[in-house]
Write a structure and sequence with these properties.
The protein is α+β, with helices and mostly antiparallel strands. The chain has seven helices and 19 strands. The chain is 25% helix and 29% strand. Strands 1, 2, 3, 12, 13, 14, 15, 16, 17 and 18 form a ten-stranded mixed beta sheet that branches. The protein has a six-stranded antiparallel beta sheet with strand order 5-4-9-6-7-8. Strands 10-11-19 form a three-stranded antiparallel beta sheet.
Length: 341
């Protein structure tokens, strides 16, 4: 079995399932079904994370990817029937300008729409290019015939409804994966591929290994609970940031030495680096200036763990993102070598 291809297929599938933080039940069901199909017995925490123990004994290691994504929520319905929204997760508003969205009502209905600035027509508004992109200057125009607040209310849309962003997921013939939400569904797909390797007997474990998929990472508390009591080490399998003076690119696995929360465990990070060298992988060691991970939430919650952070290089993070199948392969090979007996 080509496990990189399997990982890519799962990444594409997961990216297409709406799952903004707090609205992850659809992707959670996708994960549960796939893990059960592989022969594991996953379970769901009270907060909505998915956890599966793959096997092994002693020195429990947990690998954590997150399945929640950026998104929005209906803040209010405007007098003209359009929607004012509030962001879920951190991103500049211009990253979603002109993006198609889906509104998910509390009774299960869905409606499509598009994010625009107020006054987007260049032939009408002199400041359409310079107008500030923020909460007050943008709105969602529904793909429904609505001309008033009452018209929209009659559709069943109300404040507090979740809004997901069109992922626009594409795999190019040259191996590029272009999609929203590669942060962190790229690594969620890698973790599923690792599980498939164990399930098919192609990976023997030197220690107890569990994989965790969290549901609130983008809002800061994804892995603050639900960690097995016997866990001694945890690695966030997230995304590698690309840009400026960083060494990571879209083909490498990134090993993070420090982010905005501080340095990662010296021994864990060093072992990851040495493993990447031994396997002749494309990798980089980087410091991310504006970044936080699941494992930091775990530590702040009081867990006593060794910790690390790796992930495939992802370009244009928190926008329309891009990575390559080589980065997926390098990340999978690093994890497999790190846990192999």
């Amino acid at each position: 079995m080509d496990y990189t291809q399997y990982a890519v297929e799962k990444i594409l599938e997961l990216c297409r399932v709406p799952s903004p933080s707090g609205f992850t039940h659809l992707v959670r069901e996708t994960l549960l079904k796939e893990l059960q199909k592989l022969g594991f017995e996953p379970w769901t925490t009270n907060k909505g994370s998915v956890l599966a123990t793959l096997g092994g004994e002693g020195n429990h290691l947990v690998l954590a990817a997150h399945i929640d994504t950026l998104g929005a929520m209906v803040r209010a319905i405007k007098g003209n029937g359009r929607l004012r929204f509030t962001k879920i997760g951190g991103y500049p508003e211009n990253n979603i300008e002109n993006e198609n969205v889906i509104i998910h009502t509390r009774d299960g209905r869905t409606y499509t729409g598009t994010v625009y600035i107020n006054g987007p027509a260049a032939h009408v508004y002199a400041d359409s290019g310079s107008a500030k992109r923020d909460d007050n200057g943008m709105e969602i125009v529904l793909d429904e015939i609505v001309k008033s607040k009452d018209d929209t209310l009659k559709l069943g849309i109300s404040a507090g409804d979740f809004i997901s962003l069109d992922s626009r997921t594409i795999l190019t013939p040259s191996g590029f994966i272009k999609s929203r939400h590669l942060d962190d569904k790229a690594s969620a797909g890698v973790q599923l591929a690792l599980a498939a390797m164990v399930a098919r007997g192609d990976l023997k474990l030197k220690r107890k290994l569990s994989i965790l998929f969290t549901a609130y990472e983008e809002v800061g508390h994804g892995a603050s609970s639900g960690i097995p009591e016997d866990t001694v080490e945890m690695i966030s399998v997230d995304m590698g940031a690309v840009g400026d003076d960083l060494g990571t690119d879209e083909y490498k696995v990134s090993i993070c030495a420090k982010d905005s929360g501080g340095p990662y465990d010296y021994e864990v990070t060093s072992e990851l680096i040495n493993t990447a060298k031994e396997q002749n992988l494309q990798y980089a060691v980087d410091i991310y200036p504006y970044y936080g991970s699941d494992v930091e939430g775990t530590l702040r919650a009081g867990y006593d763990l060794r910790h690390g952070l790796i992930g495939p290089g992802v370009f244009a993070s928190h926008g329309y993102e891009r990575t390559h199948t080589q980065a997926v392969e390098n990340t999978l090979k690093l994890l497999a070598a790190y846990v192999k007996a």
